[in-house]
Amino acid sequence: MLLSVTDNIPRFTYHRRYKCVNDILTRYKNMKVALVLIIFKTVTTLLIGNKPDKACHHGWLPWRRTCFMLSVGVENWSNAELRCRALGGYLAEIYDAETNSFLRNHLKALHFNNHTVSYWIGLTDIANVNTWEWSHSRSLPNFTDWHPLQPGNNNQHCGSLLGFYGLDWHNQHCDTINHFVCQENLY
To answer: Fewer CB within 10 Å: C terminus or N terminus of the chain?
Structure first.
């Protein structure tokens, strides 16, 4: 009687080989799924950024990856900065036209026809006269919304959103009593 080559191989070997190949294919599929998830998460993070670890405090306005608080009370510029720091933030730093419009629209809605209300922001030239910088980041503004003829070359070293002029940026004496805008980053 002639035996074929396959007759000498026990049947369980074929089954074991099939199971091994099947395990490898399953692991490969799982690795492909994991790789797709990693790529998706990386691309999403690059495009829209990480979700914030925390939310805005009650009463603060969410905007992009920051929160803003429009004060009810009034202070001079230095005390306003201290109050913002005590709340975990700093006087607002307005980096672009969209953020400026966001704040301006909220302030106008809050005070409707009261054009006497002004707000401190974190802009100052105290450290170096006529060189305006943000007090928290110490960076020069790459966006400004100064009212015409502002900032004036005078003894006014603190920046504000001045109500009399539609909340355009103005420099004022730092001892002036104003409301203020605090900012807190969410990242």
So the answer is: N
What DSSP letter does each residue of the chain carry, written as one string? ----GGGGS-HHHHHHHHHHHHHHHHHHHHHHHHHHHHHHHHHHHHHH-PPPSS-PPTTPEEETTEEEEE-SS-B-HHHHHHHHHHTT-EE----SHHHHHHHHHHHHHHHTT-TT--EEEEEE-SSSTT--EETTT-PPPS---BPTT-S-SSS--EEEEEGGGTTEEEEE-TTS-BEEEEEEE--
Q: How far is Cα 18 from Cα 178, in angstroms, rounded to an integer? A: 79
User: What gap in Å lies between CA 148 and CA 161, rounded to an integer?
Assistant: 13
Per residue in 6-34, pLDDT tens?
555 555 454 555 565 666 656 656 566 55
pTM for this predicted structure = 0.70
